[in-house]
Design goal:
Shape: elongated
Strand order of the largest sheet: 1-2-5-3-4
CATH class: Alpha Beta
Radius of gyration: 18 Å
Order of helices and strands: EEEEHHHEHH
Number of strands: 5
Number of domains: 1
Strand content: 15-25%
CATH topology: Ribosomal Protein S5, domain 2
Length: 131
Amino acid sequence: MTTEHYHYGLGRRKSSVARVRLYPGTGTVIINGKPAEAVIPRESLRMDMLSPLTLTENSRAFNVQVVAAGGGVSGWAGAIRQGIARALVVADESYRPALRTEGLLTRDSRVKERKKPGLKRARKAPQYTKR
């Protein structure tokens, strides 16, 4: 980790939490000490994760350092997306309207539904037998 000035944002998705730091730089993305390509292999998730930077045309203006925990790869990507968006608003308040209209500042509250007693899963009931 470097000691220079950074902008901080926290993102959450499902059970994942991502702490994001934006440093002035060239656009490199480091997640848990590894390059983003090694941690998030799907290109579509990486594009979605970096959408706040492309929306505000800052793809090459910031280096991104992330500490992500909990959940899986898809949750990490969503949490990082929200963390980047929040850090961009801290960096420059004029980005808030554009990020808000795309829904990037709002937490996605969908989580896995709990299993209910007497059912096999959250909603799947055992098969009914007449005789």
